[in-house]
Design brief:
single chain, 439 residues, mainly alpha, Growth Hormone, Chain: A, 2 domains, two-stranded antiparallel ribbon, 77% helix, 2% strand, disordered N terminus
């Protein structure tokens, strides 16, 4: 159905503009949390004199919260409402952020992991509630476009998180290396650790206050109600029912591979760019800084492209657009594999423009027509974020090989994994488009 003349935020005489704006602000909040956390693996490793594996427990705690709370969040929303789910998510988010202060006071690493886990339990509630809530704020025919518009504000939060991490944490931590810290006396190390932890926790305490303010705004604002009339639940019957729907089942698979591709492309652009620029004669530290700038450029491109894709969705079928963007991402990834100079970096940056519409479009397509089952469907799609923790270690293991054969850089070869992911996303887009043509 052509939705170019359908109102985006009005349905059955109800105007959803104000609720849409308020809930959309939450998308930026979890984008901030995601991208301020990624650099913390290295930061914690230095502060506590740990190896990379121990520092990587931050990501385990982060994704663990997402995974553990997705279906409990769906059950909670089923019993209460989307608004209640969002409020609980914000409460857990703020609690986790504020727990960084007592974690700092202990001077130990593991209380920070507890804080991260509680924070991301909140993000799981928030995403499981907010995404399908946005889908209900207008005609179903343009629900995917509406979600793309809301999701366009997620990378704005991500950019802010990256900026804060670089300028208010990484730039202010003591520059002494892990090896140099190992030579310090216990008292010197403890003083430096407490100083660095004070710097690290400040942005988390600040975002906790912002989240608390958002909680109060939503609490006092009248929001549209979409609670179930029937509060009874047969959990396993519901799971069996939603996964019997091919469109949804395939959407969960596509989302798993998409999130894996996104995290791989954004995480390992640093290693990719560093190799390219060092091959050109640049010092390692300068090459890392330049690569990080390209990473920020990729995020800016991602953000801009999402707004453009949302506009184009007025005129083109979402499944067809998903297939087209996946093909573009695949071709650019091939360029990143084959080029061994700065053109490969350009290709890798440009991939972000193609990834821009994928998450919300897969999400919207997978939940289309599911009615109240969308609450549980949303949980399955949030759990698919696990792809972001499963696939990157596989790519890292390839990068650690150094070279493939005698001369081909392993970091280039490792991008075969994101290429496979984009093939899966393109397959889902094609299946969706063909189903739409038949209906």
């Amino acid at each position: 159905m052509n939705n170019t003349k359908l109102p985006l935020l009005k349905h059955n005489g109800v105007n959803y503009l104000v609720p849409f704006i308020i809930i959309t602000a939450c998308f930026a909040l979890w984008g901030f949390a995601n991208d301020i956390t990624n650099p913390m693996v290295k930061a914690f490793s230095k502060i506590f004199r740990m190896n990379v594996t121990q520092g990587a427990l931050v990501q385990l705690a982060f994704y663990g919260g997402y995974f553990a709370m997705a279906f409990p969040a769906a059950i909670f929303i089923k019993k209460f409402s989307y608004k209640s789910g969002i409020l609980l998510g914000l409460a857990l988010y703020a609690t986790g952020a504020f727990l960084f202060f007592p974690a700092k006071m202990t001077g130990n690493y593991y209380p920070f992991l507890v804080a991260y886990f509680i924070l991301t339990c909140g993000l799981s509630f928030l995403e499981t509630s907010a995404n399908p809530y946005i889908l209900t704020m207008g005609p179903e025919e343009n629900a995917t476009r509406r979600l793309n518009l809301a999701q366009a504000f997620n990378p704005i939060g991500s950019l802010l998180g990256m900026f804060v991490a670089m300028n208010y944490i990484q730039a202010r931590l003591n520059p002494m290396s892990t090896a140099e810290r190992a030579l310090l006396s216990d008292s010197e190390f403890e003083a430096m650790k407490q100083s660095d932890l004070s710097i690290l926790i400040s942005p988390y305490l600040a975002i906790g206050l912002v989240v608390l303010l958002m909680f109060l705004i939503i609490l006092i604002t009248k929001m549209p109600k979409h609670a179930d009339k029937d509060k009874t639940l047969d959990f396993w019957a519901t799971i069996k029912r939603i996964f019997s729907i091919p469109n949804y089942r395939q959407g969960v698979i596509a989302q798993f591979f998409y999130v894996g591709a996104q995290i791989m492309c954004w995480t390992f652009i640093i290693q990719y760019g560093t190799r390219v620029f060092m091959a050109g004669g640049m010092e390692e530290q300068a090459a890392e800084v330049l690569s990080q700038r390209y990473n920020i450029l990729a995020m800016i491109l991602f953000c801009t492209s999402r707004f453009i894709a949302t506009y184009l969705m007025k005129f083109f079928n979402p499944g067809k657009m998903l297939r087209t963007f996946a093909i573009g991402a695949g071709l650019l990834t091939v360029g990143a594999i084959l080029f061994q100079n700065v053109w490969g970096v350009y290709c890798l940056v440009a991939v972000s423009a193609c990834m821009s519409l994928m998450f919300p479009t897969i999400y919207g397509i997978a939940l289309k027509g599911m009615g109240e089952d969308a609450k549980f469907g949303a949980a399955g799609l949030i759990m698919a974020i696990l792809g972001g923790s499963v696939l990157p270690p596989l790519q890292a293991s390839i990068i650690d090989l150094g070279t493939i054969g005698k001369h081909f850089p392993a970091v280039n070869a490792s991008f075969v994994l994101p290429l496979i992911c984009f093939v899966v996303v393109g397959w889902f887009g094609t299946r969706t488009y063909k189903r739409g043509k038949r209906s």
